[in-house]
UniProtKB/TrEMBL annotation, chains A, B, C, D, E, F, G, H, I, J:
It holds the Pfam family RbsD_FucU. The keyword Isomerase applies. This is Fucose isomerase. InterPro entries: RbsD-like_sf, RbsD/FucU_mutarotase, RbsD_FucU. Keywords: Isomerase. It catalyses: beta-D-ribopyranose = beta-D-ribofuranose; alpha-L-fucose = beta-L-fucose. The keyword Transmembrane does not apply. One of its GO terms (molecular function) is isomerase activity.
Length: 146, 146, 146, 146, 146, 146, 146, 146, 146, 146
């Protein structure tokens, strides 16, 4: 634990977030996401027992979103014909808005299989125990300016 | 995640709990415990962002306490002259009682430096973000009978 | 060993089953299957001395089958012209039926060489000493819901 | 699998049995034995799901017992005052008799804590799921002569 | 060393032979074969100081040849125009005949560069000090039945 | 780089600072300190090209000093008879005062060889290029409270 | 630290510079460059807290620039339409001129995505905390003659 | 050091030369050759401080050149238009002649970029400090006959 | 294989013999010697299928015996009361005599348990399949002079 | 190779010299020194084919000798009764004098077995092919000042 840094960020996660650079991507995956097989070329960090929102909130306190692209935050698009509700997206919008001046305008959607493909080239994948549906989220790192 | 197994138990923690045998000891440590240096000869598992009670509760669902000793659960004794309250112990007692027929009678105290010494020979140490005082707890594994 | 978890599931196997996610595949292979060469990119777990049915039964107690596909369980199709009997399939059907509400309807067949190809991309392969013919079986993991 | 070699002997176990030399010791431990902590300096081989007798029988087919000592086979002595029965010992005697001309005369007892101490310096420890009481057994390798 | 197992089979070789499955291939190479470069994706086992026949004979005692193909044993074809004699083949035929009911009918030839290509995908390559010409031999593992 | 975290703290250093617990010690060593040999049991982090003060300042922004001991900050005592000046200590005092309410009262001295001995059991040693004399400094981590 | 060698060159960096040969390339990257993901096949050296100019200056004291190509030094071209100023390039020119007789004539530009592509095949990438814009620089090693 | 073996051959080099087989290639590279990047798939052996001739001479005492090809020794062709002298080639010819009955007839030339390509698939590359121009040399191993 | 070096010396053994220095000791052990457990701190080289004499003979061709001690060659003393014959010692004497001008005068005896103790600090142990009794032999390396 | 750095210093040796600190010791050993066994806790660097003087000379160009002790350079004392000449010491004196203002006054002697003991705790040992007698030399690193 360190002063002023959210305690949910483990030493290893802190290291990974810090060594990522401009345009590197991070996936915060729900509890059923095949994180180990998708992340064969990535760093996989396990955060069993946690939901996505508390992790997202902590990460955005230290991790800048990319301002060079329109949608540095990506959600997995609801599949055609699927009538599922995605209330967790509202939580995400609130958290993003709290941490980025563009608000939820910087959140985009990616079609499901494209989301998987991009996950395979992400820098890191965080495996949570999140149970909400369509809860996977991808963040693209921005530039740290002072 | 698996059916019927608490989701806070990560794949690695499940493996460690399963490979421990009769009389091996496990420490669930609070957020300021020097888990890495105490655990140089142990397996250290990080569970940043979690408190001790939720982990203890999940572990006792699959992990039998030793019935061959009087106190398979050990707390760190309050130091002489210290007037601190330890409300978290009541939570621990409730959790243990729920999972072991002996109830809180199987919980004992260990003097602080003895606790540290025993931690150094534990099989595994779980590093949490628990903030309560005197929250470290040590469990001795019992026999699985059917 | 842990309370309430089948003892045939080794610590390592438990870890692997737990870290698999939705749509990851697992092969339980017979005693002559070339598990090491097929599994160069997979995790290979040896369970010498065991047959497939007892392992299958234990795994399905904790491992949900995929409900998003019709046949989350795959057997290797009997080759054309081969008149061999496959009595072990009846055992498999009984075990699957005991553990999945769809019963044996969720069991499909895969042509032999396709089975090999899919094995090469499985998450894990369990090498048994099963002697029955056409005894290889592949499981696709489903979603854990509570 | 190989011709004429019991199939319960895994590739790794076969390698370990073969590389052991005269006077090296092997422990076949029951399901609650703390194999990993006792075996920190040994090779630990997991055989979850198996009992001790079937393993003992297979091992003695290829592994000679030491003829230079009186008791190359050691059981853990029943503790004073303990009235437990040890029917598994009869199975052990039968298996040993079948494989060594000295019969059960080559089986001795070791006091419990001495047994633990010797386990720590064994060459290898096999972790089984054996549930019988006092089922741990230690074998000392003899000389292969033709 | 183990009872009843040829002593020329090292612990590691025994492990490799045992973990091979149906259709995996093994090359026993002569002393000048580039075993390390051909075997970059294989397991290379050094048996310096030995000839091929004594190794072949020991291996076939425990290793079944594939009965699903006509020629589970392959020799490297004499190159066109090469008038060299290959007396070591007669030794091979005798050894194979002693260990497989099909006799030398199960021995085939592979053109030189095809032999090299197949070596690159073999499961293991044994590097010997054999000096005879055209002495490389490839074995395809069969099924162990009881 | 991360928002709000001093950029001189590398990903690895951040991880190490975060995983340290209450009472673990950290040495920031000058350019001639034998960091690798003193730190055989420690984590050694190289920060070539930097002086000690800028690192100390950055670390104290996130790293709490131990409040359970009088001198969580230790300097290496000037040897008897040595008339050297230690102007860098004034910089250290200013930096510590800026970051800890006890001010420079929490800085103590340790005799030179005792300093070396304690360095050998430190959790981590940072190797700098600091050229000032008597510039080694040791920090003992405190408790993070919120 | 060594006599006559700039102290900002860490032991590991010195080793890397020394083992590079004619035509190998080195990237000194700014603080937001995705050094770890670009450098998956390269050696990544962290120099957090440093700017590029002081590192460039130290490296050129021991590292010859390639004289067989026109532009052994490459900057990342300002993107079309971007009106940013690049004052740090003047510093680079001064440093290069001080160390190479060709002066700033040996500095060329590479289009941004081509720069990224070449970075992926560089021998090493140095990750700095440089904040200036368009500050990435690539060096191609020349021949050491005496 | 060993009796009768040139002392410039290090233990590791001796091992590498010995494990090479018929047709494997070895590059002895000059001091500016990018040995590490060319040799990513090869074994790189550093012999800093040595020139090529003394190494070539020692190697040829134990290493047979391939007699199945015309030019088992390859030099890097002088580039068109380059008027450089290559006096070191005379040394090479003398050394080869001393060790191979074919004399310098077994030395061929390879165009520069082809030389680089072949280096990438060599079994090993020796990095020297040789300063002569066009001093790289490649050897193809032959058959050891007695 | 290399020219002029006995082919029974594997690449790894050659490396080990070469890197040994004055006074380092090597054990050539018989087939029942517990080479792996005795050699926990040594390099263990397996030469299954070989007897000791052919290895001893090959080694002494390149390995000088220590001339600074009386008995650089040590045999394991026959135990008191043991009436066994040791004909293999005559072979050893002949081989040593052939390779060292002192003849068999440089061969001494070491009491059995002292031999074991010295084996534990040997530089390397060679595990053979030698079946003769009292066949273990220890060599102390001498100085290479030219 | 680097500009202005002796080419006999390999990348690895340069790294080791650079990471050594004040009072760390380095042994440059002759060709028969048991460098690997003496250096089990040290870094061993092989420089086969080189004598000690050329290495000593190159090292002292970058490596300061300790000025806090009288004899930062140590030779192995000639044993009592030994009448050997040590002409190589004169070379060492000349080299040291050339590089240190104290001249050969900073060279001391250490009794043979004490030399061995100190070697075991050295930071690094360089294994050369030096053939001169009593040629081992130990250097203690000093402070780099500018």
């Amino acid at each position: 634990m360190l002063k002023g840094i959210p305690q949910i960020l483990s030493p290893e996660l802190l290291k990974v977030l810090c060594e990522m650079g401009h345009s590197d991507r991070l996936v915060i995956a729900d509890g059923n996401f095949p994180a180990e097989s998708m992340g064969k070329d990535a760093i996989v960090i396990r955060m069993d027992g946690h939901g996505v929102p508390e992790i997202l909130d902590a990460i955005l306190k230290v991790f800048p979103l990319d301002t060079y692209v329109d949608h540095p935050v990506s959600l997995m698009e609801v599949m055609k014909g699927d009538t599922v509700e995605t209330p967790i997206w509202d939580e995400y919008k609130e958290i993003v808005t709290k941490n980025d001046s563009r608000g939820d305008a910087c959140i985009g959607n990616i079609e499901r299989f494209k989301f998987y493909d991009e996950s395979k080239t992400a820098y890191a994948i965080i495996a949570t125990s999140e149970k909400a549906l369509y809860a996977n989220i991808m963040l693209q790192k921005g530039v740290v300016v002072e």
